[in-house]
Amino acid sequence: MVKPGKPKISEEELQKTKIKTISETCFVIGNGESRNIFKDLERLKGFGAIYGCNAIYRDWPNLCEKIFAVNPPMYDEVYEEKQKHKYQFELIGREQVSNWNYIIPEDKDVKLPRGLQLYRYWIGGNNKTGQMRTLDLSKAKGSGCSAVLHAAEQGYKNIFCLAFDMLGAEQWRNVKEIASRKQNNIYKDTKNYPTRMNMKAYLKYEWLYQLTQISRKFPDSNIYLINRKEYLKGNGLLPHYIKFSKKNLYGAHYAELGKFLEQPRDPRSFFKFILQPN
Q1: 11 occurs within a structural domain
Q2: Over the stretch 170-208, which tens digit does the pLDDT of each residue have?
Q3: Which has the higher per-residue pLDDT, 5 or 121?
Q4: Strand 132-136 to 121-125 pairing
Q5: Percentage of residues in the chain with pLDDT exceeding 90?
Q6: Rg (the chain; Cα; Å)
Q7: Contact indicator for 33, 56 with CB cutoff of 8 Å
Q8: Strands of 49-53's sheet in order across
Q9: Residue 108 domain flag
Q10: CA angle 236-188-258, nearest 5°?
Q11: Facing residues of 123 across strands?
Q12: What value, to the nearest 5°, has the Cα angle with vertex 160 and ends 220 and 168?
C-alpha cells in the first residue's frame, strides 16, 4: 500500500504565506566581516524591513529603512551625510532608542544560567589602568542590540541578525576551541572606528546577554543569528545563552537565509540550524 504524500500547497496559499511572512520579518545588519560572504545586501529588499548600524550607509546608502548609531561621534557623521546627500533612511540615535534596561522581573530569581560563569555582570581587567573592574551589561547601549530590541518592540516575529560576529576576525583560520580576538569590523581603521589590534574582551558578553534578554522579554519574536558556521560553532558560550532563551534564539548559516529569500515562510519549518534551543 502506497502511503499518501503531503497535500500539495496551492500557489495561492504559497503567496499568502509569503506576504504574511514578509510583513513579520526584519533584517538587522551588523558590520562584522563575515558579512562579506553574503555579498549583495540588496537581495534583502522586498523581503522584510531592513535595519542597519553605524557606517553601513557608506556602502549601502539606500538599503536600510532605519540606521542606528548610538555613539555620538558616529551619529554626527551619519547625520551630516544624511543631510548632505538627502538620504531617506530614518536615523536613530541614543536619545531615540528604547529606554528598557534589559532586566525583566523574573531576573531577581536567576543567579547564573547553567553552563555560564557570568551573565549580567562582566568582571575583568582594564588594560589602561591595570585594575580589575565590574561592568553591568544591562547599562550598555550599542547600535546592534538596540536595533534588534527595536525590531522586537515593533512586533516582528522573524528577526534575522546578519554579521553579529562576536568573535574576532578570521575565525575560520582557528581551530574551533580557540576564539579569535582580532578586531572584527568591516569599517575598522576608518573614521569613528578607533584603531585597535583586538576586540574589547567584554563585547561578546554584552551582545550575548542583551540578545538573550531580548529573546526572553519578547517570546513571540524569533531571533536568528545568521553567520558563518565558524562564528556559531566556534563560540563556545553561545549554546548556553540559546538554552536560556524562551526557545526563540537560533543560529544558522548564510545559506539558510538564501533559502528563505527563495520562498519566505517560517524558518523553523525548514532551516537546518547549526544551533537551536533544546
Answers
A1: no
A2: 887 876 667 888 899 999 999 999 887 778 889 999 999
A3: 121
A4: antiparallel
A5: 80
A6: 19
A7: no
A8: 90-92, 66-68, 49-53, 25-29, 158-162, 222-227, 249-253
A9: no
A10: 60
A11: 134
A12: 125
Render the burial of 150-188: b for 16+ CB within 10 Å, e for the rest.
bbbeeebbbbbbbbbbbbbbebeebeeeebbbbbbbbbb
- pLDDT tens digits, one per residue of 251-266: 999 999 999 999 999 9
Residue 6 has pLDDT above 80, yes or no: no
Question: What are the two backbone dihedrals, phi and then psi, of residue 158, each rounded to the nearest 5 degrees?
Answer: -115, 110
> pTM for the whole thing?
0.94
Burial of 207 (0-12, 13-18, 19+ CB in 10 A): buried
Amino acid at 252: A
For residue 5, what pLDDT band results from cuts at 50, 70 and 90? Answer: low
Strand pairing category for 222-227 and 158-162? parallel
Q: How many domains does the chain have?
A: 1
d(CA 137, CA 122): 7
Inter-residue contact 29 to 56 (CB < 8 Å): yes
Helix 203-217 and helix 143-153, axial crossing angle in degrees, nearest 10:
0
Establish if 107 belongs to a structural domain.
no
Residue 128 lies in a domain: yes
Among 143, 150, 123, residue whose Cα is nearest residue 134: 123
- Residue numbers of the domain that contains 252: 18-102+114-269
